[in-house]
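Class prep. Protein, please:
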Amino acid sequence: QYFSAFLVGPMIVILLVFFGRAAGRIAAAALLPIFFVVLWAPDIANSRLDDLTHYLGRVSGVGWIDPAAMEIRHRIDQVRFWVTDLSRAGAPMFDFSNQPALYFFCDRPNPTRFYQVPILSPAEFQREVIVALERAKPPIVIRRSPQQFDVFDEIDNSVRAQAVASYINDRYQYTHSTWGTELWTRKKTNPPLNLDGYMRQIRLPSLREIGLLGDRARLVFPSVGSVSGASGTYWKSDLALHNPVAARMSLTMRYVAGEARVDRQVILAGGQSVRWEDVTRSFFHAPEGRGVLWIEYRGDRPPIARVKTYDAAHNARASIIEPLSMREAADDLTIVGIPSGAERRVNIGVLNVSQVPITFRVAAFTRTGQRVGRMIQETLDSDEVYYQADADRALGVPLDETMTVRVKMAAGAAIAYASVVDTNGDSQFVAAVPSHP
């Protein structure tokens, strides 16, 4: 399409030459104003209309700025920053998100001869790509497109190129999200390449299975882990999953805590249930810490998931927590019903679930709507979490059941929550709700 657009000019010249030979030079010259009116006058008129309708840009003298173009520019800048930060200059990079322009903007070579995933989907090409990746060992793989180029026809690249996706899942790990784009880095140690094993992953899904795939969606537990706390507590989280449908369900589980970033694939048969005690240690094999657990699924029916968080040191009463979904996300959130008490401890968390960085403010309000205490302001990148222990002290005011805590974003959306811990180790989880449903 782009190439043919450049041929319009030469084609017009050729047509004028033939027309001039047939009808004479005067007739050919008479056609020039017609071509001008047909081809260029609409562009000039459209430019004038744009200048007229974009009033702010015209009077400010800076011109019209397309918000979508600015967002793409920021995304490119951030992806380029992280690629530069995570790898040496000139090192190869592999794009598995159908955004090949990133090769140019990041100034990185493609270690394969394929610039889009659909082109490499045949089995022999997937084999070639895996061999090329194993030879070049690019330190960076780009996954996920905020514009869903990686699922442009509702077929995920991980389904379209199953062998390559399995290779990436085994030899790379999720490292960072920025503006809806994921960057994966190569693991320091990898076992010998089992090429035939990856090729056996290729399976053509049936039309029924494709129909069941549906859109990507996520559930999130914003605070799970295995970590020591105040007053001699030691917190653990157990996870239970259940597939409520008859068809098998494929889930991508991701645990992010500090430098620990672990992805696991889980397939549940129809009606199957599984449970992991101390899930961050037993399933993710992560070090001690507290982090975020993401569960990605496809389709209209999510898995049934529950996390039990408890103080194992005191055998205290556990909190049974349901996951939060993107329906609970908003740009203005309110935490209501924080229990009173001088001995209990309140912690507040904010998780950025949008594709853009957010700047948010946390403040406490009385029953009459008056703001009291101090205000907290922080910035989070995509999928990052902010955790504030002892919120009473941080906000400079003792919270009670008559008060609310409000989390407000300038742009983007987040999920927020409060965890309340008594001196005996009993805990409660209070999810924030949108301030303006």
Observations:
- The first strand starts at residue 93 and ends at 95.
- The chain has a mean pLDDT of 86.
- Residues 67-86 form the longest helix (20 residues).
